[in-house]
Input
Amino acid sequence: MTGQKHSVLIADDHQLILTGLRIVIGDSDSFYISSEGRNGDDVLAGFAEKTPRIAVLDIGMPPGDKLQSEADQSLIDEMERLGVREASQFGGLLAVSHIKKHYPGTGILIVTQQESPAIIAAATRLEVDGVLLKDDVNENILAALNRIVAGHPVFSDKVKAILEQHKEQDPKLSEREWQVFELVAHGFKDKEIAERLDISARTVAFHKGNLKEKLNAETTAELIAYFHERNR
Output
């Protein structure tokens, strides 16, 4: 072996994926596993023991109690706007947010089976260094790690296609319009939305009108269908 070996933390709540990553990365001449875990708290513990050069994380793993208690509320709110309310569905993103804040020198590679354009786009907004779908991992993981060490982003062709789909679908809505949109999509009536957001029912109707215009929807039913199709 020649050259430096870079440390890699791996975290996924599926043991089969962890085992596969451990075998492939462990056999490499350029990388070694410094820590592994199955939830966000395991990630925090791994960083406390040794800050890795790269963290390879799943999106849909439980955050753990400690990470959830320290989580970025704005990210949780964003996930709720996307209709994702269980933290176990985006614990990896909470870990990313924590790492970016406290360990900015660590590269982050997301390895996920999640193909929701909105959720993958949320990962890119957190400035991860790469995203691979789990179908691509065995063939591409070492090349991806090498590219991240070299300072290059890593997004598989499948992920690029998903992000392009999101870009085409992503409407330019204000924060208030997103709030109204989500509540409409979850069955709340204008009066209920007004009470929740502390605005008038007339203002709710105004925002719904803007939503219909921006999303090319003629009815509230079409708005609801659009929301759930976009965020499934």
Summary: The longest helix spans residues 201-215. Residues 63 and 115 are 20 Å apart (CA to CA).
